Amino acid sequence: MKITQKEVQYVADLAHLDLSAGERQKMETDLNAILEFVDRLSEVETGAVEPMAQVQDIGMQIPHSDPLREDELRPCLPHELALKNAPQTDGSFFRVPKVIER
Amino acid sequence: MSDSLDLNLLTVSSARTAVQERQITATALVESFYKKIEAEDQPAGKVNAYLTLTRERALRQAGKIDEIADRGNPLPPLGGVPIAVKDVIVTQGERTTAGSKILGSYVPPYDATALARLEAAGAVVLGKLNCDEFAMGSSNENSAWGVVRNPRDLTRVPGGSSGGSAAAVAAGSAVATLGSDTGGSIRQPAAFCGVVGVMPTYGRVSRYGLIAFGSSLDRIGPLSKSVKDAAILLRHLAGPDPMDTTCAQAQAPDYEQEIGKPVRGLRIGVPEEYFPAELDAEVRNSVESGIDRLRDAGCEIKRISLPHTRCAIPVYYIVATAEASSNLARYDGVRYGYRSTAGDTLSQMYRRSREEGFGPEVKRRIMLGTYALSAGYYDAYYLKAQKVRTLIARDFLNAFRDVDAIVTPTTPTTAFKLGAKSDDPLAMYLADIFTVTASLAGIPGLSLPCGKSSDNLPIGLQILGRHFEEGTVLRVGHALEHAQSAG
Description:
The complex is a heterodimer of chains A (102) and B (487). Helix content of chain A is 32%, strand content 0%. With 102 residues, chain A is mainly α. Chain A has a domain at 1-43: Histone, subunit A, CATH 1.10.20.60. Chain A is flat, with a radius of gyration of 23 Å. Chain A starts with a helix and ends in a 19-residue tail after the last helix. By secondary structure, chain B is an alpha/beta fold. Chain B has a domain at 7-258: Amidase signature (AS) enzymes, CATH 3.90.1300.10. Chain B has helices spanning 12-20, 26-40, 55-70, 113-120, 163-171, 187-193, 227-237, 255-258, 281-296, 312-327, 346-357, 360-373, 378-399, 425-429, 436-441, 470-485; strands at 50-53, 82-86, 124-129, 176-181, 196-199, 219-224, 267-271, 300-304, 405-409, 445-452, 458-465. Chain B has an eleven-stranded mixed sheet, sandwiched between helices. Chain B is globular. Chains A and B meet through α1 and α2 of A and α10, α11, α12, α13 and α14 of B.
């Protein structure tokens, strides 16, 4: 077993997931089964191979756009619209529960 | 409506022609689709492809089209064509949920580029289509809003994650639809439902307004009744977009013209790794007879090898989940989406909102991705997977020196029963075994029906091509479609 309950709890904390005890148990089983399958990758020799994070990384001739544009003012989402989907606002800002915990 | 108009048979061009020639108004056409959806899609136990009907928006657009047609002016290229889009594609003012409870009441303030382009070309958007939550799944059983049933057999899954998009086309409740494909999510459901589905090259179609899953893999593409319809739609979808920096600058060719070119002399690769001994015999036979038809049409068939194929599922489920864990960090109950009422502090609110808002498969993938990116495991999992991804992509680049297109089965089996794999995530992941490779390499792929099993279920054949050579992929698909209809 690669992953124990302790690690499930650690990763759930990193991911901000408040898993129930039942979910943690099932997660341990599922993640171990998947990782065991993933382990076949360790048989592949990748010493000098460059990692591929993007399709562009493999030297494909793609005419991609220059991500930089002129630094000019453009209309953006109006304040009111940007707040419209928020669960809680005070009309100007997003409202959240208190931040300081200790 | 006109008696001669059978909604099930309408294509992109016949729908436009019917409206242009006033056999039916665009408005009446929309209404007859809604009647069909209300009778055949929405009742309990039926297909359930539609999550939201965008009635006002559709009628407004149809009204504009009717004004043009009434004046006797030529309609825009997709004028009056009723389509629908997967619910991971945002629609201004129309609820967009991505199949998730966490976005249950989200109303986007803007339109996705892909959708806006089809509407600008005259298409009428009927509604939003069911899918696996955040496009994560291969059966559409992971939707927070209920399963989609396969219109060819209501006891079976339609495939996923674009299950609603494929089912709507198969059921005739839209002329064509948009889906998204991250590891097979257009092609696999297209195969299961017996329709055509196209995943364009990464960067061919803007992702602006596509709710993100795995950003180095995600693509929007069309599902339709014919290769020609897909070619017409892709032409309007494709092309540069300043709102997506990964979108290529290249202008798209006229795919409708491309598919008319002869296939004689094209070299078609058949990779041995996609025909393993355990492959379903009926799938094998159907795909092989498709290959025979291409040979008869003058293609040169070559046996090839893509040696890293067996690594594709493990690579995919590390890369895609790592990207997903990062993309889905935005759902925190602050700016949009579900917020739990439990929790007195910010941190507790985050944790409870995500716990209550996400479904089991999404949590599983966030956990796997977070683990693969975490300190101590990054090199062993994420970096290793990225390196093997290079090898998988190189397999294709090497193969495409000798062949112009590659033909494989789309899926190892036909559509499985609802519930058959829902308790075994690994078995479900293996449903994507023939589709994830092209996703990782960034190349275009198409699935089209190539026969039926003895229990009358559709079988899909996949055609893959070089980066930005959708034209060749569509051309081979169109030729095969023709050969099949000729008997």
